[in-house]
Design goal:
The complex is a heterodimer. In chain A, 30% of the residues lie in helices and 26% in strands. Chain A is built from eight helices and twelve strands. Chain A has a six-stranded mixed beta sheet with strand order 6-7-8-3-9-10, with helices on both faces. In chain A, strands 2-1-4-5 form a four-stranded antiparallel beta sheet, covered by helices on one side. In chain A, helix 3 crosses helix 4 and helix 3 runs parallel beside helix 5. The longest helix of chain A has 16 residues. Chain A starts with a strand and ends with a strand. Chain B has a domain of 197 residues. Chain B has a two-stranded antiparallel sheet with strand order 1-2. In chain B, helix 1 runs parallel beside helix 5, helix 1 packs across helix 9 and helix 6 crosses helix 8. In chain B, 49% of the residues are buried. Chains A and B meet through helix 1, helix 2 and helix 3 of A and helix 5, helix 6, helix 7 and helix 12 of B.
Amino acid sequence: MPNEDMLQINGLAKRFGGLMVTQDVSFTVRRGGRKALIGPNGAGKTTLFNLMSGVYPLDLGTISLDGARIDHLPSRKRIAAGLSRSFQNIRLMPHLSVIENVMLGQHSQIVGPLALFNPIGLMRGNQARKAAEDRLKRAGLDVDPDGPVSGLPYGTRKRIEVVRALMSNPKLLMLDEPAAGLNPKETSELSSFLKEEAESGLTLLVVEHDMSFVHDLCDETLVLNFGRLIYDGPTGEVQNDPAVREAYLGTRRVSNAGGDRAA
Amino acid sequence: MSGYASGIVAILCINLIFAYGVYVTAAAGQLNLGGAGYQAIGAYAAAVLSTQGWTPGWGTIPAAMIISALVGFLIAFPVLRTRGVYMVLATFAFAQVVSGVLLRTSLFGGAIGMVVPDYLPLSVLILAAVLTTLFVFFLMASRFGLAIRAIHDDEAVATIMGVDVRGMQVTVFTIGGALAGLSGALYAHYFSFVEAQYFNPNLSIFVLLFVLIGGTQTAWGPLAGSLFFTLIPEALRIGGSWRFVVFGVTIVLMMAIRPEGMITRTLIARISSLFHRRPSSSALSLPNARPDLPDARMGDQHAK
């Protein structure tokens, strides 16, 4: 029987010098689930992504994807295991064209050293290239595939990065603020595109500040504060949770000096 | 062809293959200022094997390539522990070590150099240059080429995309060693004489300039760079010793006007859009005049 949970995170901890950046983080994302990860600035959301994609080694804890431990894998092997991600600040390759950036996303899918010499850039009819062009179109991106990425609008580049991350056919896609800098139209297009992908089996974990995007896309939400999880439940109830309200708005406390101070 | 002209064509072929040897590492973001060292190893390997009566005569060429590739492979490990300007210094030091060993070993004739018995005609050099050019163009159009260009742009993201960054870097140093070695072996057989003084730091600097001024973005760069650097000094001979001044000023101007090299991807896109009339060529309509330059560092603050 297949495991119900696509992603299982257990007791994750990371220390940078004397600073505990994540502490005892445990959660699961079910197969085909769409979960948001929110939290105030500096809560450790991107650090959590970096730990999961292997940018930093873990101090404690385990990460399992589809029932198999991946925390011992080097960063470059995690994408082949099914974990793909985008970045908070766009990190497309500036010297590669749009289509080349997208084709880079296929790298983990190639089999054997001979595939390395597939001349993907020689013929326009190349299969790998076609697959990349199709994916761009399905994402609603009408751009010159051979044009440079650096001149494109921010929202377009942001979505190209999502397409690049999808090219590895991941089981779990982690998106770091995919809607930041997108206009409302682009945001809703991205949301429906991601919903389609999730319906065909993709599991999503999304860091996002735009709560309407989160409400639209994600049925469940995690809230991280000072490296600890303070909420794991339905998105609809997150705003009523007292611990979450405290993390975002602070507590009202009368200080000795008199005035109100937000913690 | 006059002796003068065929001499220039021979040097051009050798320089071109040599430049491609340095280019494959530069395309992956590694600057190699030890080109002369690899070329010297190829030249001396061919010279030694040739004097030992290696048959057939041309068999020294693959042998020299294998030896210099092996050195390229082994040197890659210590060199890849360094980055940026330190890598440039490490490769430079490697070439100095090679030169020192050649000057001090009697097998290699010391400062007197070596006579190479087997002669290879110009046609072989031209054939080798053409094949090397085709090989590098193919390599850069393959997934391998895409991966090394990705490493050039952002090693951290390339790793997350599944690219074996270290493996690729070692591979380009190995291929680079083989090509530089090939150029050295052809030099030895064509000029029938090798001496350690020829493979000096100037040569390493020049071949790196071929690549950097030609442009590292495409395989056209080294071609343009080698042509420019081999032919312009010859054309300037009329001006006597002023040619070095003119040549130096030209280099400075090239770097000022086209810091990414003479041939960039944008330039190629522009030229190809003249031939294929595509309805929308964003390469032409870019508001940003310098799409070939990287954006301001886009990394998130944690991922380095």
